[in-house]
Structures are given as structure tokens and as C-alpha cells.
Amino acid sequence: MNPLIESVRSTFLGFHDPLYLLLLLLVPLIYFWETRRREPSIIYPSLSSVRKIRKTWKTRAYPYRTWLKLFALVFLILGAARFQKGRKTLEVITHGVDIILALDTSGSMKAEDFHLKGKRVTRLESVKHVVSGFVKNRESDRLGMVVFGSMAFTQCPLTLDHGVFLTFLSGLEIGMAGEQTAIGSAIGTAVNRLKNLKSKSKVLILLTDGENTAGEMDPLQAAEIARAFGIKIYAIGVGSKGEVPFLVQTIFGPQYQYVRSDLNEEVLTNIANTTGGKYYRAQNLQELEDIYKSIDSLEKTRAKVKEHMEYKELFPFFVIPALLLLILDRVLELTFFRRIP
């Protein structure tokens, strides 16, 4: 399978040399020094006549020259810290895994020996719940679905659109492919979907609660064919051992009847071992969730990340105003605020 390339771009603002910002601590000290230092003065015997002199706008504005210098200093410090606007591009290159989930929808999946949120549910409802969580963790993988009972067919072809996959998953119903269990046909259908793909990792997750009772293909023979095409099978046997409850309609209303559940674990183990996979047994919802987490960790998607950084220097937006403020201060000192000794 060709690699999946995804680019993620983000922008940020920051200082290249933030240590210069410590110089801002000097600004209050300079302000204190400028406002507290004594100006040259003339001693008069009496200030009563001087107090009568009305202040002009020049004398009122003169103290504000200190603020021009302070703002100029602040801008120079910010300029020295080199304020920048940057753009970061992450290019994620992933080599995904092609995964087909073969799900049993035969009549035995009606058994309600699983509990979800404290409520009894059918095996199929439990499987749909767990598979939904599994799908959300495989963002870079192509997923497909084979449904089997008395026969097997492709419910969802391999796709990167997991929303479509989940739609097909939610529409699964018990008995939609017949009441019996054709494990060999399910493997054969999945192999037909995977065999000609060029992906380096091809996986079939086979989930069933019974033994092969239908179909023309022997499950072990189908497993040999899967191995020949480099397809790894993880087999999951689902359901409690012994008698399990089925909800049936009676003249007294819905009643539970207990029926013995048959699961050929030996065949499923041989199927998995033949292809280099693994067999699991899930007797409750938690075990089923743990199994899918285990498979998720075994079949990891390889990812490579390239990072590109671009910067735009913004320090001129601070340095230029600082120089203009210093020039303005100097011009005012030589003109409007000029002193005559």
C-alpha cells in the first residue's frame, strides 16, 4: 500500500532571545531615577512671587519627556529579544496496515452471555461495541469487513473512510448471512480481498462463536491459502463455556432458555498458528476489549515525521518606533524644550 502523507501546519509567536526581556526590570528603576533626581535650581529669598506665575503648556509637558525615553527603551529591549512569527509544518508519513474483520452473524450470536453497562446484550452487540473502539485507534489503516453465517460476503471493502466502515458496522444484524457458520468461506472471501494488495502487512481478524457447519471450503485449507499470500490471521472465539441464555418468545412472553454453546477452539488455534497469528478466547466484554487492544498493539502502523520551520523576523516593528521616539525626544530638546543657561 502506498504511504499515507498528512501535513499539519501551525503558526506561533515568540522571542528568539527571551533572556533580553530581563532588562525590562530596569525600566522601573530608570523611571524612579528620572523622576526623583534634583534639577538645577536658583535660590530666591521668597517664592511667593514665583508661585503667581502661570504654568505654560511647555512646562506642563516637559516631565512627559521621560516617558518617551522609557517607551524607546522598552521597544529596544523587545527588538533585542527578536520577536518572531513562525510557521511549523509537520509532515506525517504513515505506512498503514490492511485489516479485514470477519464477523460472525450466525444465529448463535443471539446468545446474551455478555453485559454492557450492567445490561445483558447479545454477542453481536458486544462485538459491535468493541470493534467501534478498535477502529478509532487505526486512523492510518485501511479497514474492510466480511460478514459470514451460512455464507460469507464483503460487507465493506477496504477503505480509509472509517466513518463509512462504522456505518456498515452499525447495520449488522443477526442472521443476515444465514443461521449456520461458514468459517472457511469467511477466510476465503477475506483472502480474495487482500491477496493482490502490495501492503507489507495484511491482517485478518476472524471472530466467531461456533464451529464450521457450512460452506464448501475447509477452514484449515483456507488458512494455508492465507499464509501463501502473507496474510496473518488473529482468531477470536467469543462466548461463555457451557450453557448460555437465549431470549425467546413464548406464550408467557419473552423468556430465557439455556442452550449449550459449541466452539471448536482447536480449529481456531490451528488457523491462527498456520498464518503466524494468535488465537484468543473472550468469555466476557472485558476480555473481548483486552483482546482487541492486544491486537492493536501487535499490529502497529509505522510513522515517520518530518518537521519544517519558517520564521519571519518582527523586531523592526519595535526597533523603528524606538528610534523614532529617541529622535523625537532629541528634536524636542533642541527646540520646544531647549534650555538657556
In short:
The protein has 341 residues and is an alpha/beta fold. It is 36% helix and 30% strand.
Based on the model shown, name its key terms.
single chain; alpha/beta; 30% strand; 341 residues; three-stranded antiparallel beta sheet; 2 domains; Rossmann fold; six-stranded mixed beta sheet
Description:
With 341 residues, this protein is α/β, with parallel strands linked by helices. The protein folds into two domains: 4-36 and 53-87 and 309-334, no CATH class; 97-300, von Willebrand factor, type A domain (Rossmann fold, 3-Layer(aba) Sandwich). Helix content is 36%, strand content 30%. It contains eleven helices and 13 strands. The protein has helices at 26-36, 48-51, 57-61, 65-80, 123-136, 162-170, 183-194, 219-228, 265-274, 285-298, 316-334; strands at 4-15, 83-95, 98-104, 114-116, 119-121, 142-148, 152-159, 202-208, 231-238, 243-250, 253-260, 278-282, 302-313. A six-stranded mixed beta sheet has the order 7-6-3-8-9-12, sandwiched between helices. The chain has a three-stranded antiparallel beta sheet with strand order 1-2-13. Strand 8, helix 8 and strand 9 (231-238) form a beta-alpha-beta unit. Helix 4 packs antiparallel against helix 11. The longest helix is centred in the last third of the chain and has 19 residues, at 316-334. It is elongated, with a radius of gyration of 39 Å. The mean pLDDT is 83.
